[in-house]
Structures are given as structure tokens and as C-alpha cells.
Amino acid sequence: MQDTVGPPMDAPTKPLRHQPIWLRWLAAASLARLPQTSLPVALVLTAHEATGSFVGSGLLSGASAMTYALCAPWRGRQMDRALLPNALGWSLLAAAAGLVATSIAAAAGAPLWLLLVFVVLAACAGSGVGGAYRSVLPHFLHSTQLTQAYAVDAVAVQVAWIGGPALAAVVAAAVGPQACVGVVAAVTAGGALLSWTLPRREPGSPTRQHSSVRALLGWLWAPLVLNAGIGINLGALDVALPALMTDHGEAATNGGLVLAGLFATSAISGSVYAALPSTNPLRKVKTRTVACVLMAAYGALMASAAATPQLWVSVSCLLVAGLAFAPGDSAVILLVSEQAPPERLAEAFGYFSAIGYVGIALASPVTGWFVTRFGAGAGLLLAGLAPLVAVVVVVTARGSKK
């Protein structure tokens, strides 16, 4: 039975790690997020096994990502008006069912168009779930704990980006590509079951959600711009890092190892940042300032990697840049909860996720063109300039408004 729990009015007496509700939330959100990081690899391998073509692989993976991007705001709005965590659980189960259907259809030799239908349905059901999880936090955590909570969540994202692709690759090698999608479905179902142990959150009142989408985007413009820069950065890295390896005579697959290393250093720094007590001076700095400074440092270090001729220097710059990523990303996430009204948090996080997915989807082909025309350094430069330009836009626009 789910209890309705509200945010504590008094200052918290126990740290996050000693709060069972928070630990259950972290486990449920992590299980729900892992499929989003392992699914692209799983779909690529499944489609290639079924069709023998990487064109089909790209279509299947791209259809999933674009469905997430297009449906996340709409599904987030639905989550705001639904009873949580019930809506979370049923959405994840529907996504798991779509993935099971995809796995069975691929094993049965179904045509590509049928696989696309199942993948789109699964992505539609699962979109908006990540934002809904984050929207629940202010309902059972004290406001002074949200900074640390979002910092830990950012670390969990880095771990998911390390473990997700690795999980897909291991299962595909040991059992087969079709089983890979099935395992992703099982993890999704596990997240659904665990979500039902979270506290009950009543549906938001439609009368309090009457403000226009334009007004909501106006409140969120700063974190949206910053997350667009992050999305472009990640999309560019997916292409630029393998190209960097081949330019230096290394295997293209080593690019994935470098990206995993970047996320690993990011997870380490994010863990340190999350462990800072509320009395630490860094906790007193405005969230927007933290986000802009760290994202600017991340972009500058990454851009410097493009200017170095030695491979080991470029890789070192990328790993050091990762130290700024998770703390900066957690600050950008916290900005959403600070700017959006509480009754529209899931929708706000839906737009936040959507613009990141769009940035990734658009940056990959553009970076491919840059890399083909000018070399891997141009792709790395684009990856570094994206967060830098986003920070400049946020700072200058805020200055003009003042």
C-alpha cells in the first residue's frame, strides 16, 4: 500500500543515505534509466542481426531516440495530471511489453517496418518517465536536500551511460542480439515493480496547469539552452571520438572506451560534489552560477583537446573535462526544479529531456560531415564549443534582461 508523503517542513535530521524512501527512489529511477542507455546499442545489434544492414540499425535506433524527444513533453504533462507512482509503473510495463514484442519479432524474422512499429510504441510509453521520477523528489525531500539529491542523480546518469552499453554488448555476445532487447525489457519491468513502492503523489489540478506552453518555456529557457549545448556535445562526441582514434591509427572502437572514461571521471567528481555537506561554501553559490562556470570549464577543456596533435594529450584533456560534467549537469537539472512550478515539473523535465535528445540527434550527422571534411579535430571543436556557446547565451541574455 502506498502512503502519501509530503516534503518535511522542518530541517532534515537524517542524511539522504539513511532515508529508505530516497534509496528506493534512487534504485527505481536507476532501473528505469538503464534501458535508455543500453537500448541504442541493443537496437543497433538486433536490427543488424535481423536485416544484415547498418542502415536498418540506424533507422531503428534513430526512431527510438526521436520518439523519446517528440513524446517526452506530452507524456510529462500526462504524468503531472496522473496519480504517481501508478502512472510510472504502468508506463514502464507498457514499454517493457513493446520491447518484448520487438525481441520476439526480430527472432521470428519479422520485417523492419514491424520492428519500427514496436520500437516506436515502446519509446512512446517510456518517454516522460525520467522527468516524472525527478518531479516526485520535491514531494518527499526537504528543499535543502534537493541539491544533493540531484547531484547523486547526475552521478547515477553517468553510471548508467557506462553500464548500459556494456550490459547490451555483453548480453549480445553471450546470448545473442535478440536476447539483448529482452534483457532491457526485463530491467524496465523491474523498474516498474520497484516504482510502486514509492510514496503516493496526487494528480496535479488542471486549473493550476492552465498556463501556456510558451509561459513554461519562458521560465525554463536557461536550463533548456544549457541542456541543448550538452546534447549537441554528446552527439558530437559519439562521432568525433571514433574518428579521433582512426586519425591516430587506433581502432575506432577505442573511442567508446574514451567516452566511458570521460563518464567515469565525471561520476567520481559528481560523487565528491554530492557528498558535500549543506554547510559547504559551494552549496551557497547560486545554481545558475555553478551550472555556467562548470559547463564553461567542460567546454573549454574539450575544445583544447581538439588543438593538441598528440593523442594522449587529447585523451587527458577529455578525462579532465569529465570532472566538470556531472556537477555541472546536476546544477542544470536543479535549475529546472527551481524555475518550473511544482505542479508542472514532469512536463518541464519532459521538455528538458526532449531538447537534449534533439541536440544529440542533430549533432551526430553534422559532426559526421565536419569529421569527413576537416578531420576529427573539427568534431571535437564542435563538441567543446556547444556548451561554451550555451553558457555565453545564458549569461549575456540574463545580463541584457537586468
Question: How do the helices and strands line up, and which of them pair or pack?
Answer:
Layout (H helix, E strand, L loop, with lengths): L19 H32 L2 H27 L5 H22 L4 H15 L2 H8 L9 H29 L2 H19 L17 H35 L6 H21 L12 H20 L4 H29 L5 H30 L1 H26 L1
Helix pairs in contact: 1-2, 1-3, 1-5, 1-6, 1-7, 2-4, 2-5, 2-12, 3-4, 3-7, 5-12, 6-7, 6-9, 6-11, 8-9, 8-11, 8-12, 8-13, 9-11, 10-11, 10-13, 12-13
Task: Describe the fold and architecture.
The protein has 13 helices and no strands. It has helices at 20-51, 54-80, 86-107, 112-126, 129-136, 146-174, 177-195, 213-247, 254-274, 287-306, 311-339, 345-374, 376-401. The longest helix is centred in the middle third of the chain and has 35 residues, at 213-247.
Can you give keywords for this protein?
2 domains; about 400 residues; single chain; Growth Hormone, Chain: A; about 0% strand; mainly alpha
In short:
With 402 residues, this protein is mainly alpha-helical. The chain is built from 13 helices and no strands.
Report the count of strand segments: 0
State mean pLDDT (0 to 100 scale). Answer: 83
From N to C, what is the helix and strand string?
HHHHHHHHHHHHH
Distance separating the two termini: 50 Å
SS-based structural class?
mainly alpha
Largest sheet: none
Overall radius of gyration = 21 Å
| The named CATH superfamily of the largest domain | MFS general substrate transporter like domains
